[in-house]
Amino acid sequence: MKFDESGFEVRENLVAPAIVQTLLAALIQQKLEPLRGGIRRIEQRVPQVASLAKSADLLSVAGQYLSGRPEMVRAIYFDKSPDHNWFVTWHQDRTVAVSDRFEADGWGPWSMKSGAWHVQPPIDVLQQMVTLRIHLDDATVSNGCLKIIPGSHTQGILSNDKIQEKVRQEQAIYCEVAAGGAVIMRPHILHASSKSVVSIPRRILHFEYSSYKLPEGITWSA
Asked: pTM for this structure?
């Protein structure tokens, strides 16, 4: 199944082992407190993360899934471990953060979170976005790898009832990925993850990119 139909794919060996080790060392040095919802704006706290997210290599990869020049929308660090364990229910990533509030058809509702405006954009904006989830550890079913409902991104924005219906009717795919590999997906594809049942950590850098042109004077807030 092609990416446009499935809404996701797994790519192994996207980031070299030496870079993975450099990232892990930098993240560990920060002594970050793990959060269930992830640590947002991680690129502002760890320069090595910013270098990777904005590197020519990753921008080139993101550009393969977009119709125009990619810009980074958001960077989040997820650190799932035995001491900081959680599950994520089935959902779609359907909000973005921007520098200022503006009025435009289909944009809303708006909310202020962590000093940034968050908003649900129209579906055509989400269709011009791609997420690269860079794995810093091996991700397996045992330590809570991502699971996805292929093709669910083609259904638009789904209500909670429709999400539950899709989950009952469709077969989920578990995205097991070795360190250095990535899950690449449309943000609004249905996805979830279970709690880890082993002592192996599952650390991930979640980068979102878009080729959508925001109104003049507005930028992605990350």
From this structure: 0.95
Tell me the pairing of strands 182-185 and 8-11.
Answer: antiparallel
Closest CA to 109 of 121, 124, 126, 91: 121
pLDDT one-digit tens code per residue, 21-71: 999 999 999 988 877 778 989 999 999 999 999 999 999 999 999 999 999
Token pair of 122, please?
């129209």
Q: Which residues contact 132 (CB under 8 A, 6 or more apart)?
A: 14, 58, 61, 62, 182, 183, 184, 206, 207, 208, 209
Report how far residue 219's alpha carbon sits from residue 99's, in angstroms, rounded to the nearest whole number.
Answer: 5
Which residues have CB under 8 Å from 32's CB, separation 6+?
A: 39, 45, 77, 79
Q: Are 142 and 200 in contact (CB under 8 A)?
A: yes
Q: What is the DSSP letter of 202?
A: E
Lookup: tokens for 184: 């690449």
| Residues in the chain, overall count | 222
Of 81, 91, 194, whose CA–CA distance to 144 is shortest? 194
Q: Please state, in angstroms and rounded to a whole number, the distance separating the CA atoms of residues 12 and 135.
A: 10
- Distance, in Å, from the CA atom of 188 to the CA atom of 195, rounded to the nearest integer, reads 22
